[in-house]
Amino acid sequence: MEKHKVLDQLLMELHRFLLILDKETLSGNATIQKGLLSDLLRSYSSSNGADEEYIYMNKVIVTDDRSDALVNGKAAKYVPVPKKSLPDLPPPRAVSDYQLDCMRVD
Q1: Which pTM does this prediction carry?
Q2: Does residue 63 belong to any structural domain of this protein?
Q3: Is 28 helix (H, G, I), strand (E, B) or coil?
Q4: Is the residue at 29 inside a domain?
Q5: How many distinct structural domains can be found in the chain?
Q6: CA–CA separation, 69 vs 77, rounded Å?
Q7: Is position 81 within any domain?
Q8: How far apart are the C-alpha atoms of 106 and 103, rounded to whole Å?
Q9: Which residues constitute the domain of residue 7?
Q10: Cα-based distances in Å from 35 to 5, 21, 29, 38
Q11: Main localization of the protein (predicted)?
């Protein structure tokens, strides 16, 4: 038998066994283990067949400056990023002696 068929059968039998245990009187430890198995089976069953999540990653290769760099797999010319100048800073504020006295901690 193929592995996925064996796994499907195992999960189906586990589900049936857990249903049988629902009708039995179990010890505390057995009840906890049954609960854990039920949760695992439910988690696996709800995620099985659902849409899988995929991560898309871009790969960047850094090489010497070349005019024939690739953009989306096609040859393209290198276009430098425009440089922006920084904004002018405001002039420093003058601080009076009174303000300096207020700022001192003795």
Answers
A1: 0.43
A2: no
A3: helix
A4: yes
A5: 1
A6: 6
A7: no
A8: 10
A9: 3-47
A10: 25, 10, 10, 5
A11: cytoplasm
